[in-house]
Amino acid sequence: MRNAREIKNRINGIQDTKKIVNAMYLISSSKMRKVKADLDHTRPFFNALLAEIKRIFRTVEGVENRYFYPADGSAAPEGTYGLLVITADKGLAGAYNKSVIKEAQRMMTEHPDSKLYVVGEYGRRYFLRQKKAVERSFLYTAKNPTMERAREISAYLLDLYDKGELVKIYIIYSDLKNSLNSRVVMTRLLPFHRLNSPHYTVPKDEPEVQTPFEFYPSVEAVVENVVKSWLSGVIYGALVDSFCSEQSARMTAMSSANKNAEKLIEYFTAEYNQLRQANITEEITEITEGAKAQILKRKKEVR
């Protein structure tokens, strides 16, 4: 049975842990607000880029580009898939990392000829433990998503795509739906269909093009440059969404840990008070018995 000192030390240790948990919650909250504001400022630009790509294909006939499905509607050729998997650099975020990894494993089971490109130290270590080859790990990107790092990832994957080493590129990440819920998203980056895309919906009130567009030096060159910029934006958005989801998951985990700490403190405080009360009762009993013994002794002496 624990003594009072052991229980008191346990309570103090839990209270110290509770302070750390609360600090981690506040840090995650601050990080999420900052990076979410940055994304809100940049996402409209890349949505506008995709809108213009779609308008080009709706207004110009016969445009061919390797980043799009063939104009005749046939499927892209089969071959090696590239999977860009975005995880965190560390744990303590509930099921955030495991959900993304589970989706990546499902994709690799369906298409064994897939190559892994991992963002985040957690994912890199996991796949290495599972004896899965990681073609490249983008270090220090998960905890500090920036446009420059998104361009680095985009350029690397585009180079492999242009060389024909990858026929399709997918991205797997966690998307923050609201402050409480997030979902794992797997979407194809390249090639994508001309008339539909998971990243953009054509506005119903979009005006018709009355005057034909003029492209310099050519429509193919314009599309290629715009697609590259758009791809960087999509990857940047996924990095930020993942980072926000990570912070949200960590906030939820820390909130749960804080509640558990409060329950433990309440439990050990009650146990401490019971033990203390028992000790006090025992001391009072000993004093009372001692007093009685002294009274009996005096009575015997008087006789």
Map the helices and strands.
Layout: H1 4-59, E1 81-86, H2 96-110, E2 114-119, H3 121-129, E3 134-138, H4 147-163, E4 168-176, E5 182-190, H5 219-302
Helix pairs in contact: 1-5, 4-5
What is the helical fraction, as a range of percent?
55-70%
Beta-strand portion reads 5-15%
Alpha-beta content class:
alpha/beta
Low-confidence stretches: 196-200
Q: How many strands, which pairing sense, and closed or not: the largest β-sheet?
A: 5 strands, mixed
The CATH topology name of the largest domain reads Pyruvate Kinase, Chain: A, domain 1
Series of secondary-structure elements, N-terminal to C-terminal: HEHEHEHEEH
The strands making up the biggest β-sheet line up spatially as 3-2-1-4-5
What's the domain count? Answer: 2
Cα separation of the termini: 46 Å
Q: What is the average per-residue confidence, as pLDDT, rounded to a whole number? A: 79
3D shape: elongated
- Rg over C-alpha atoms, rounded to the nearest angstrom: 31 Å
DSSP helix count?
5
Oligomeric state = single chain
Total number of beta strands: 5
The CATH superfamily name of the largest domain is ATP synthase, F1 complex, gamma subunit
Q: What would CATH call the class of the largest domain?
A: Alpha Beta
CATH architectural type of the largest domain: 3-Layer(aba) Sandwich
Task: Kindly list the characteristics that best describe this protein.
single chain; Pyruvate Kinase, Chain: A, domain 1; alpha/beta; five-stranded mixed β-sheet; elongated; 303 residues; 2 domains
